[in-house]
Amino acid sequence: MAELGIRGLFAGNKKTGANGFSRRACFKLRQGGDRARDRRDWQQARAYYSRYLALMPEDAAIWVQYGHACKELGDLDAAAAAYRRSAEIVPGGDAYVSLGRVLRSQGALAAAGEAFRKALELEAGFDIAAMTGDDRAAAARGPETEAEPNGHEAPPAAGPTIHSSAGTIKSIDGKYYVCTLKGEAGCALFGPYWELDPGYYSVTYKLSIPRDDRPSYADHAICCYLDIAADYGNRILLRKPVPASSLKSDDAAIALEFMIDEPLTLEFRVHATGAAPLLIEADRPVTRKHRYKFSPILQSDSVEDVFFSAHFGRFLHLFNRGIKILPSPYGTMIEISQIKIYIKNIEDFQLIDEVFFRNIYNFVPQRDVCVLDIGMNVGFASLYFATMDYVKTVYSFEPFRAPFERALENFDLNPGLRAKIKPCPYGLGDGTRSLSVRYDASQTIGTSIRGHRAGEETPILIRDIAEVMTEVIPEARSKNLDLVVKMDCEGSEFAICERLDEAGLLNQIRVFMIEWHKWWSEKTQHDIISRLIRCGFDALDHTNPENPHAGMLYAIRTG
Fold it and tell me: Terminus of the chain with fewer CB atoms < 10 Å: N or C?
């Protein structure tokens, strides 16, 4: 915001505070700083807070916020001064912890430890959980020495700065290492607080179990965790457990590849579990990688996918979570949980998160089941159900042609699962009817049987669920299968449940997993829950109170 915009806040105000400025003007400056902070615009946040503090210099809380802005901008001296000023006004744990972290990053380890100790002394008025293990370790050190945070002698002055709170720092053949013992757990390496620009990187950790100790440890034992952290350890970008099997050679090295889309100050940390002794090289080289060589799909110049290029960061996020990304003449595929699927729409990433990472449809029944997937969309949930040994049949219902055809395309990628799935090109409701609605293929997740205000006119068929159930129930009974219903049909769930109740069919279903939506009805999840409880179900309502217009609910018939 321009300087004139900030000065303009003082114009035309009648009620003034002790400094001659209006309280409203002060409030707006503070609010402007808070909003800039929330959107991580640190330059603006510092500008607003600076002007606010010129008027209200005794506001200890805003001195802390001003310090945070300075720290994010790399002005650590100004940040430390702001935290000290806050602590002078009102001694507080937040100010001392923040001061300690800045001092530690500057190498002033004794002063940092003193700040952390003061935070601990204020425990009665401070959320002690805000302190990390490294903070507590620094506080535990005596104030009389400038030793490294692990309490051992620092390396010679000519050596590198090594941040450690567990183990012993040693120099071996001209290289610096942190050596931890069996049973010694903690952050063996943190820092080095490098500032990196947006891009694609790889960091290499070199660590191993000492040669003579290797036979003593089972391959599956988790010996340490590697992570990449920002915001002084408060934000974890990537975390990887390391088993002993990866640490049993002299040249063991583990590379973590990551992407950042904003400038960040990063730490590359090693957390020892104490399961085995470790020899950890302090140097963790970071290299910037070329985008096209970094991605597993673009190693060949012959593979082109505009959608992939436009959403590279999202694919990279999946890649960093261990998902295979596969080239194809027909678009980008991923392989997740032994399922191959095409990713062609930005909404697919939300579906992947819900189905495969958040596991919102994961269930374990006593008996084998038949699943009704009402609102199949592009088939991710149907494939997920088909991977379960106890799911013998999946009936999948989708009235819109575009997602239905995409689902068939995904099923064809998985012939071993395809045999379980019976796709049905219609939706379910409280009666049978044909409709013509407007449809937007880019917005499949939020499309109800009422369609959109804009888009191509599309015919859809809705069938009476009671009629369909008269076909499904006999087949399930003949195979001794319980019925499980998954519903994500954008508002039709109310009519479907009412129709099942009216037809006396609710008691034929063992489990409901329903995403309900208050799109075009005044009804809520409670209308569904009360109906299910009357029919012998126990219900679990997972609706987020901050979003009263949609949510997940689950119900299990116990009778």
Answer: C
pTM of the shown model: 0.52
Rounded distance, CA 108 to CA 211, Å?
A: 36
Segments making up each domain of the chain, as ranges:
3-140, 168-289, 292-326, 361-557
Contacts of 380 (CB under 8 A, 6+ apart): 341, 348, 351, 352, 355, 356, 410
Class of domain 361-557: alpha beta
Cα–Cα distance, 269 to 227 (Å, whole number):
5
**In the chain, what is the straight-line distance between the N-terminal and C-terminal CA atoms, in Å?**
64
Side chain identity, residue 154 = A
Distance CA 151, CA 146 (A): 9
pLDDT, tens only, 17-30: 444 445 666 777 88
pLDDT tens, residue by residue, 283-310: 899 888 654 444 444 443 444 677 887 7
Beta bridge partners of 266: 194
Query: Could you tell me if 93 and 152 are in contact, meaning their C-beta atoms sit under 8 angstroms apart?
Result: no
- Contact residues for 122 (Cβ-Cβ < 8 A; gap 6+): 91, 92, 93, 96
Residue 282, both tokens: 């302090």
Q: What is the mean pLDDT of residues 356-380?
A: 94
pLDDT of residue 520: 67
* CATH fold of the domain at 3-140: 1.25.40
Helices (DSSP H) in 58-130: which residue ranges?
Answer: 60-72, 76-89, 93-105, 109-121
Cβ-contact 417, 386 below 8 angstroms: yes
Q: Is the pLDDT of residue 524 over 80?
A: yes
Mark residue 455 as left, alpha or beta (left: phi above 0; alpha: psi -120 to 50; beta: remaining). left
Distance of CA 155 to the CA centre of its chain: 38
Among the residue ranges 219-223, 366-370, 375-379, the one predicted with the least confidence is 219-223
**CB distance 368 to 392 below 8 Å:** yes
For position 135, what pLDDT does the model report?
55
Q: Look up residue 308 and give its two tokens.
A: 């992939």
Residues forming a β-bridge with 256: 203
Mean pLDDT of the chain: 81
Task: Report the 10 Å Cβ neighbour count for 467.
Answer: 13
SS3 at position 20: coil
Distances (CA, A) of 261 to 229, 237, 305, 394: 14, 12, 21, 40
- Separation between Cα atoms, residue 252 and residue 245, nearest integer Å: 10
Do 115 and 107 form a contact (C-beta atoms < 8 A)? no
Contacts of 523 (CB under 8 A, 6+ apart): 494
Its CATH architecture, for the domain 168-289, is: Sandwich (2.60)
SS3 357: helix
